[in-house]
Amino acid sequence: MAFDHWGPQDLAAPAKRQLPEVPVQRGMVLEDVQSGWVGEVTRVEKSGGMHIVSLEDRRGKTKSFQLGFGFLLEGQAVRLLPPAPRPASGASTGRTASGSVKVQGQRARVAMSSRIWVEGKHDAELVEKVWGDDLRVEGIVVEPLHGVDDLKSAIAAFSPGPTRRLGILVDHLVPGSKESRIAAEAMTVPGAAGNVLIVGHPYVDVWQAIRPKVLGIEQWPAVPRGLDWKTGILRAFGWPHETAEDVGLGWQRLLGAVRSYADLEASLLGRVEEVIDFLTAQ
What we know:
Strand content: 15-25%
Order of helices and strands: EEEEEEEEEEHEHEHEHHH
Mean pLDDT: 83
Number of strands: 13
Low-confidence stretches: 1-11, 87-93
Radius of gyration: 23 Å
């Protein structure tokens, strides 16, 4: 007899058991226990430092849930884990700024014909700082557009196709905005459907995708109507703001505060990951 088991015990408590741990995969059919929602996994993305899975039901409606406990797979309770890392040659150790497994000893791939387009230089620098390691492994080049007013013509000149895809990140892409109308018109270009993905964040400028607490502030300053937004931000910070050089130096100070994906807003993280998945899908 094991006398060390004697003592106060909760005899009504169920025995603890270890749930199977299953890496999530697209195409899985899962049930969220709490809501009863049943759907097929259509997307997995990192958002705000956590992994989110999207489940599409038989009616085509989609809901998103945080990975972890609370799912049934083929009627069995499981703990959902992030997707297994893509196979890659070379040893892997550590993490990149985007949170991905870092690949050691692998040279950057020759650039593929597909591209990521962003609105400007600052957008490109931010994407490079956080996702640069991942993009070099995949052979994806980020190019600044310097504005999206002529996006339709730019896409037509690119001639998108199944082996020549575009992922485009647009500032202030919200319903009813000028940018949303430009994006809708751009998708009418022949070859764009299925080969071009236009996504965006809700911010006036990509600067706002940096989480305020990273900069030691509660929220981004409000800029008076009619004042250039970047100029107004720098002035509110008490930084030089009179010239283009001042703006460039101010941006470098902001960019220097970013160390990893955890320093960025979820609304940008998810969209960039979506674009990368779109361009690397087989």
